[in-house]
Please model this.
Amino acid sequence: MEVAPSNTDLGSDRKPQVIYRCKKCRRIVASEEHVVPHKRGEGQKCFRWKKRSDELEHPPECSSIFVEPMKWMQVVEEGCIEDKLQCIGCKARLGSFNWAGMQCNCGAWINPAFQLHKSRLDECRS
Model:
């Protein structure tokens, strides 16, 4: 006789879902499934000479997340090639996008790029 797993057993194997919220109005703007992962760049040597700083040791931790285009991104729907991304609730600037791509602060290039700054988001685990 086989015993069916209980509801408490089913949820224990899953890791918590990460949700990103606007820091100003707390509206959900993305979840972990919308994040586009990227391979860390080689840090400062990936940037043009004038954009480099004196720190040549370790690539910094990424200060942004890159996501897929989503319905709340109104300027994307309007057909713009590049622009700022604003929260649909409070109009706070959350990041920017560029269909031609952008460079992350770790040095990696992401094409197309829909960048949300971590400093403008709250990362919540559910």
